[in-house]
Amino acid sequence: MTYRGRFAPSPTGPLHFGSLVSALASWLDARAHEGTWLVRIEDIDGPRTVPGAAEDILATLERFGMHADETPVWQSGRMPRYAQVLEQLKSTGSIYPCGCTRKEIADSLLHVHARNTTLAYPGTCRHGLNGKPARAWRLRVPDGDAAAITFEDRWQGEQTQNLATEVGDFVLRRADDQWAYQLAVVVDDADEGITHIVRGVDLMDSTARQIYLQHCLGVPTPQYLHVPVVTNEHGEKLSKQNGATALDTENPLEALGAAARHLGLDLAASDHATLDSFYKAATAAWAKRMDTRMNIGN
């Protein structure tokens, strides 16, 4: 298998330390496998996209010495492809229109919670809209044993999620006409031939949904690796929403060293002399930590 990995930031602000950890992990995994490392700008969520943020992220990655092996892909330029896949799913009966509002779903889940059962989308529109206008499109998940999706995460170990009881039928096209993350990421990974996905553990909850959608579309399932996220002093995931500051592009080695330590990589002080020496040592340390059985060079 020819390794193809990717880093896929959302341009909702400048690159911060939490994002750097994910970028570094994906970059090192690709290099340890002597593979290809891609960058994808996930800018399909129009209301959250900050003008100029994508360009700033790409410039920061360059400044930190992480150069994409192919021209970056922008999701905003792939809208027709997502529409094509949605039509494909319609033709197979895998999806259905949903007329539920957020309040209706919340009220329904509150009622379900009162009965001490699951908090998943209850399938209100599975068998028809009941006179309501269509707002979103949902993918029908299986019932029974087939709803349990199990995968082996290279960092977190074996994971299982029951889509029927823990998630329910999930959205592929949102009520505000935005493409859902689940659809876009699965289509993009398949079209780019991604074989390995390395990202933060905060996204692991999406993995079972993405694997099921891959099955529906008949595309390969990549190998997954979810690294620990960076948290702030309150134990919250470090993010732009809770005040994460932009990286200092004038001193990339300091931030890279901290990111390597967060990933459990033991590097000597001499390894931080230059970007080249850092990446050489960090790639070897990553390969050793992950037991990557590949020739990584000398």
Automatic annotation (TrEMBL):
The note on cofactor binding and number reads: Binds 1 zinc ion per subunit.
Pfam families associated with the record = tRNA-synt_1c
Q: Which residues form a coiled coil?
A: none
Q: Where is this motif: 'HIGH' region?
A: 9-19
Q: Which GO terms describe its molecular function?
A: ATP binding; glutamate-tRNA ligase activity; zinc ion binding
Q: Does the keyword Metal-binding apply?
A: yes
Q: Which GO terms describe its cellular component?
A: cytosol
Which InterPro entries does the protein's record reference?
Glu-Q_tRNA(Asp)_Synthase (IPR022380), Glu/Gln-tRNA-synth (IPR000924), Glu/Gln-tRNA-synth_Ib_cat-dom (IPR020058), GluQ/Sye (IPR049940), Rossmann-like_a/b/a_fold (IPR014729)
Motif 'KMSKS' region: where in chain: 237-241
Q: Where is the Glutamyl/glutaminyl-tRNA synthetase class Ib catalytic domain?
A: 4-248
GO BP terms: namely: glutamyl-tRNA aminoacylation; tRNA modification
Record-listed L-glutamate binding positions: 6-10, 42, 181, 199
UniProt keyword annotation of Nucleotide-binding present:
yes
Keywords of this protein's UniProt record, alphabetized? Aminoacyl-tRNA synthetase, ATP-binding, Ligase, Metal-binding, Nucleotide-binding, Protein biosynthesis, Zinc
Per UniProt, where does Zn(2+) bind?
A: 98, 100, 121, 125
Binding residue positions for ATP: 240
Give the Enzyme Commission number. 6.1.1.-
Name what cofactor the protein needs.
Zn(2+)
Q: What does this protein do?
A: Catalyzes the tRNA-independent activation of glutamate in presence of ATP and the subsequent transfer of glutamate onto a tRNA(Asp). Glutamate is transferred on the 2-amino-5-(4,5-dihydroxy-2-cyclopenten-1-yl) moiety of the queuosine in the wobble position of the QUC anticodon.
Q: Which family does it belong to?
A: Belongs to the class-I aminoacyl-tRNA synthetase family. GluQ subfamily.
Q: From the Swiss-Prot or TrEMBL record, give the protein name.
A: Glutamyl-Q tRNA(Asp) synthetase
Q: Which organism is it from?
A: Paraburkholderia fungorum
